[in-house]
UniProtKB/TrEMBL annotation:
Residues 216-323 form the AAA+ ATPase domain. InterPro entries: AAA+_ATPase (IPR003593), AAA_N_dom (IPR025753), At3g28540-like_C (IPR058017), ATPase_AAA_core (IPR003959), ATPase_AAA_CS (IPR003960), Mitochondrial_chaperone_BCS1 (IPR050747), P-loop_NTPase (IPR027417). This is AAA+ ATPase domain-containing protein. One of its GO terms (biological process) is response to stress. Its cofactor is Mg(2+). Belongs to the AAA ATPase family. BCS1 subfamily. Residues 394-412 have a biased composition (Basic and acidic residues). SMART domains: AAA. It catalyses: ATP + H2O = ADP + phosphate + H(+). Keywords: ATP-binding, Magnesium, Nucleotide-binding. Residues 394-420 are annotated as: Disordered. SUPFAM superfamilies: P-loop containing nucleoside triphosphate hydrolases. GO terms for molecular function: ATP binding; ATP hydrolysis activity.
Length: 420
């Protein structure tokens, strides 16, 4: 009876409003079934409903095997298949003697013809089970089981903002499978230990932030030349905290409103600096908690001072050229040379230390040199010799380029003086 009633109500959408209202009142008088709709997005909120996500997870675990139209995706590092009911399908569930019907559907496209209409789930049940559904089935049984399924199947993701205005979704994602950790991160050990301690303190200070009236967030500014490990640092942080990553490409954001949606979903006519700063430490930063916000730049001196002033970013972390301490980590990662073997087993370590003091070379170049040699199954000694050759060449190239750089810098200064 419930499926028939629901189908009949859908057909009423094609009948004039005056007629449908009378028909609905007639059927409602005799209809003993109630409906509860769970929308993917609410009119008052930008972000996807947690309630909807929990219901979706519950149905995938408890009811999907009884559906006729299914959709599937891999989870848990491709080791498990998650199956859920597809749009315009229905399944039956039971709870403490009550029979319930779940329907999956999509809302009608709006005037802007969204490419992906918002979805919804509709629960139909006998009105005699109202208290059971409202007080036990939904808040305890469905939500608790849904949360458990989400945690069990959770696999961290890398999100990128979608530039299209025609989609109801503003983030796309792929599985996050970067293996970087703080143990393998090529960074000065003391600096690395300080960052880990800061992250651990942040994770344990939720109540402290609430007591002083501050949103629970932490900001880091990573700056340095390309190849110094900024991306690896972010990946290591995500793995350390078990966080998802949201990669926000600001050049594709067309308005402050769109930027607001992006920040709220993570937890005017153009994007302005004031709009960005509002999300970093203004009122909108309180929309959603437990966030790590990371800014990266290759040129610190080109950033607007308002963005990097003290207090806006909690830590400024310089990602520098390769030092001898960083090289030792790379030697362990790629050549498996342990600390006690360094200068006793490989006399080239002394030469490498000397060259690193004189040469600007990034950890990425050092890592690629060691890896390429290792792929050819060369010995550790040959790999280190190859690195010495690479560094000597970089030193020579820098000596040749230095006069040209100084000449360009002089021209730039003259041009600035003329403008003044």
């Amino acid at each position: 009876m419930a499926p028939v009633a629901a189908r009949w109500l859908e057909l009423l959408g094609y009948v004039p409003a005056v007629v449908t209202n009378r028909i609905k009142k007639f059927f409602q008088y005799f209809d003993k079934y109630l409906q509860i709709t769970i929308n993917e997005y609410s009119a008052e909120s930008f972000h996807r409903s947690d309630f909807f996500k929990n219901v979706e997870a519950y149905l995938s675990d408890a009811c999907a095997s009884r559906g006729r139209k299914l959709k599937a995706e891999l989870c848990m590092d491709f080791k498990k298949l998650q199956v859920n009911i597809d749009d315009n399908d229905e399944v039956t569930d039971s709870f403490e003697g009550a029979t319930l019907w779940w329907y999956a559907g999509t809302k009608e496209r709006g005037p802007r013809d969204m490419t992906e209409p918002p979805r919804y789930f509709r629960l139909v049940f006998d009105q005699c089970h109202r208290d059971l559904v409202v007080n036990s089935y939904l808040p305890k049984h469905v939500l608790d089981r849904g949360r458990a399924v989400i945690l069990e199947n959770r696999r961290r993701r890398l999100f990128t903002n979608i530039s299209s205005n025609n989609s109801s979704k503003i983030w796309s994602h792929v599985p996050f499978e970067h293996t970087a950790t703080f143990e393998t991160l090529a960074m000065d050990p003391l600096k690395k230990a300080a960052i880990k301690a800061d992250l651990e303190a942040f994770m344990e200070s939720k109540d402290d932030y609430a007591k002083v009236g501050k949103p629970w967030k932490r900001g880091y500014l990573l700056y340095g030349p390309p190849g110094t490990g900024k991306s690896s640092m972010i990946a290591a942080t995500a793995n350390f905290l078990d966080y998802d990553i949201y990669d926000l490409e600001l050049t594709t954001v067309k308005s402050n409103i769109q930027l607001r949606r992006l920040f709220i979903e993570t937890t005017a006519n153009k994007v302005t600096l004031s709009g960005l700063l509002n999300f970093i430490d203004g009122l909108w930063s309180a929309c959603g908690g437990e966030r790590i916000i990371v800014f990266t730049t290759n040129h610190l001196n080109k950033l607007d001072p308002a963005l990097i002033r003290p207090g806006r970013m909690d830590m400024h972390i310089e990602m520098s050229y390769c030092t001898f301490e960083v090289f030792k980590i790379l030697a362990k990662n790629y050549l498996h040379i342990e600390e006690h073997e360094h200068e006793h087993e490989h006399e080239l370590f002394g030469e490498i230390r000397h060259l690193l003091d004189e040469t600007k070379i990034t950890p990425a170049v050092v890592a690629e040199t060691l890896m390429s040699k290792k792929r050819k199954r060369e010995s550790n000694g040959d790999c280190l010799t190859g690195l010495v050759e690479t560094m000597n060449k970089a030193k020579q190239d820098a000596a040749v380029a230095k006069p040209k750089e100084e000449q360009e810098e002089t021209k730039a200064k003259r041009w600035q003086r003329r403008r003044k």
